[in-house]
Amino acid sequence: MNKVYKNTEMSLRECISNNRRVYCSVMTGVFILVILSLLPRPLLAMKNGKIVVFNSDTSVERYSIAHTVFKSKIGNLVEEIDLGNEKLSKKKIKKKIRKIDPDVIYCIGSKAYQLVHKVAKNKNVIFSSTMKWQLLPIGKNTYGVSNEIPQSTNLMMYRYFFPDIKKIGVLYSKSYNKKWLKIAKADADKIGVEIIGKAIRKPEEVVSALKELLPKVDALWLTIDPIVLHNKESVKNVFMQSEAARKPVFAYSNVFASYGAVLILSADISTIGKQAAVLALDILENQEITEKIQNPVGSSITLNMKKVKEYGITLNEDALDSVNEIIR
Amino acid sequence: MINLMRIILSIHLSTKKNISRLLIVICILVSFLSGSDLNKSVASPKYTIYFYNQEININNFVFFKTEFDKYLSDYGPYRFQPFSDKATFEEFITKKNDGVYLLSSWHYDDLAEKFPIESVLVGTSKGKSTQKRVLTTNNITNIESLKGKKVASVGNEGFTKSVLIGMLGEGKKDIIDSLKILNVPKDIDALIAVGFGVANSALTTESSLKKLAAINPQLYKTLKPLATGKQTLLPIVAAPKQADDDIGMLLTVIEKMGQVPGGKDKLKMLGIDGWTKLSKTEMISLEKR
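Above: the input entities. Below: the structure tokens describing the complete assembly.
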């Protein structure tokens, strides 16, 4: 390398003394190119890396929103694959990834992530829009944005909207949510709210468990639990029991709006797409990433004012500036 | 088509019985239409509140419009039109002179130079018509260390960076240009982003930081202000300079929103709880910026 520099330098000196303008420009250009080619690769890779998106199904609105927002922040995606449209086998996905050789793969939805993870373990993979990411296989090159608002944020908002609510009940199954409940209780303690949990083992226990739980609490907090919310019937039972006991239900998705949930706090999908984009750019720029799996920081809040009035719950009206939608 | 109708009518009108039947049908139709909602005395909206505010991140325009339209329709032929894009908003208002404009005090300053408008009302929150912005962090010790870092903000990139220039000075422009802006739906989300390590700092109003102190003291204690901006006015209602009496009536309806329960909760969605007429000092401060 020193010989290259020396030769280039000598040529430049010659050029200046002989006043050969064209030759100077060429040599200067060559000198710059030599320096650049000898720089470590990651510095050159800044924002020029290849990014591919695998979308589980673009016809699913929340996947589509995350995809569109991600794309708007990244700009030059190498390829976008819709697994809802293209029936690709593991082998074909592996072949595609090998051919493109992306620096980052963004997977939207569990289906996309699970398929890509199996065939591209050495690639940097970002996931988003999956339920219960803790159940996914996570590799050393896995990054992601959770779809679930953390317990602390939920509790903070419940308290902000309804300052009189002190005891919140949670119906859960130990197999899915034992750890979740432990965290919820610890977070609740910090803000002066009590969580009363009632565990069930089978969907058939929902009604009797609620009859026991609801009289002890001011509100019911619905969480993602396939035993508690086993099917439509189970969901109906939860809301019917809560309605009969006149206890508000706090939920995590707008699908429960029609059942009568009083407050729905869900992750803002657009912000998830932005977070995924920031992660992708940080990876490409070799930036330090302290949180590989991030909590979603954007929230979407729906308030059922009709139910608030019906149950006579005290609402902090200042909280209305945080609401995205009001059901009247 | 017309000929076909003529033929049908001529067949129907050929007997007296059919004439009377047709008259009955016509009467029923007329009474239906006159009694129907279509013909209610709520005329189609004639005056509009045009809304654009980059300080507020609204992601459900349909909901906002529906809420405000319902409220305004009780008071007259008024409607609410939100915009998500500054250029479209400005393009629209050049063509229309049939309403008033609800916008940030920052934007008013710029708009008043281009269009013949004047500020009339300013939003209030707990009796105050101003707000301060704060840049908060939990792990950055000085402004220089902010270079290349992430700032969570409700405003878009352009707005956030211009606020930061106002706050930190033109001398810090290279630092501000290097910042990555993470746009979030609410001020509280921006503060949470710092708490979760997703952003290094958050640009919010001082009142949002105070709210956080009340609802999550633990998180609040981990945050510290890195820089504070000057007091700026809350959202403004501006009207065309040559406003007629009808626009004057609309302004009265807007001004009284904070005194009526149904109106107050609409204002809360904009982060204010009332309106007040701008004082002379406030008007001068708006013009001077």
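Note for the figure: Residues 35-42 of chain B have pLDDT under 50 and may be disordered.
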